[in-house]
Amino acid sequence: MPEVAVVILNWNGVDFLKRFLPPLIRNTDPALADIWVADNGSTDDSLDILKSDYPEVKLVPMEQNYGFAEGYNRALQQIEASFFVLLNSDIEVTENWLEPMYRTISENPEVGACGPKIRSWHKREAFEHAGAAGGFLDKYGYPFCRGRIFNVIENDEGQFDDNLDIFWASGACLMIRSDLYKKAGGLDPFFFAHMEEIDLCWRIKSMGYSVKFCYESMVFHIGGGTLPENDHKKTYLNFRNNLILLLKNLPSARLFRVMMPRLVLDYISLFQFLARFEFRNFAAVIKAHFFLATHIRSIKRLRGKNLELCTPSLHPEILNKSIVYNFFLKGRKYFRELDF
Question: For position 128, what pLDDT does the model report?
Fold first, then answer.
């Protein structure tokens, strides 16, 4: 049996499957990996097309749409492999996409997860917004990447061609040890969408494993398929989930020192939305904080589970400064300008 299971979570994505399954099949060694599609109760003809046109692809049909996190959790319970690759349906893989990640994780027992270089499918020389050349956090929980800080996205000119420890790898293409995925509790459905992979990576790092960037592996990502970049629902989920991420994973001694300035930064963003007459985004931030206040017990329970599993801790891949201050006030818009 191959050691790797490449698992695509599909929901009514037949067009993506037709476009991106052929290069995935062509560039994936069947002796190394099986390709799976876990179907989240699609109502299009995804399953019919898979059965008729792609018999080499294994299927995990599910009776309804469980969303990203719970869909993967349910699917991966039914798949046996030493390593899982969570792969978005809108990813185009390249010729040597899998082997470098496999070598990195299989030959280094301290590596719990790894991710490839992710370029934009639309702008082939540019990094993709969510993932780029490896993810990091600042001290207040704002995620950023090598190759992308806020809305400044770099072209890939080889400036990040090194394999190094990162804080998080994108859920668009994430390789992880299967036993570690299960031990860590998988992706947290409480997030619904956005930042589940950062939460998972933080947990496995606090369990003593590292997350690696593998520059020799490269994929192209369409991205933005679930919610547009300027959608107020995305604003709500980003603000809400980022606060949940911090409350779940910060060491106790850092909670107050981080959360109070972070809340101030959120209210600065709130009034910026108001000043720009972005009333839906303004309301989204209010809604995110209201959710936090009304679900604090649930979040405390999630933090309690983390405390049973590992010791919440900080890591060298967290910038001990404010990326907001560096970017907007100091004008440091590129990763190379940051001082870790």
Answer: 96
CA 209 centroid distance within chain: 17
The answer to whether the Cα torsion of 9, 12, 15, 17 is positive or negative is positive
| pTM of the complete model | 0.95
Determine the pLDDT at residue 230. 55
Residue closest to 139 by CA, chosen among 340, 335, 322? 322
Query: Using CA atoms, how far apart are residues 325 and 302, in angstroms rounded to an integer?
Result: 30
Strand segments (E) across 79-151: 83-87, 91-93, 111-120, 135-138, 143-145, 148-149
User: Tell me, what's the pLDDT at 190?
Assistant: 94
Task: Could you please state the CATH topology (level 3) that the domain comprising 1-81 is classified under.
Answer: Spore Coat Polysaccharide Biosynthesis Protein SpsA; Chain A (3.90.550)
Start-end of H helices in the chain:
14-26, 46-53, 67-76, 99-106, 178-183, 196-206, 232-249, 255-275, 279-294, 296-309, 323-324
Start-end ranges of CATH 3.90.550.10 in the chain? 1-81
pLDDT in tens, 134-171: 999 999 999 999 999 999 999 999 999 999 999 999 99
Radius of gyration (C-alpha) of the chain in whole angstroms: 19
Residue 227 confidence (pLDDT): 46
Distance CA 121, CA 182 (A): 31
**Alpha carbon distances (Å) from 198 to 100, 167, 204, 317:** 22, 8, 10, 12
pLDDT of 226: 46
DSSP summary character for residue 265: H
In this prediction, the residues of the chain whose per-residue pLDDT falls under 70 are: 224-230
CA atoms lying within 13 Å on the CB side of residue 322: 12
Nearest CA to 164 out of 207, 203, 206, 210 is that of: 210
Give the separation between CA 303 and CA 230, rounded to whole angstroms.
30
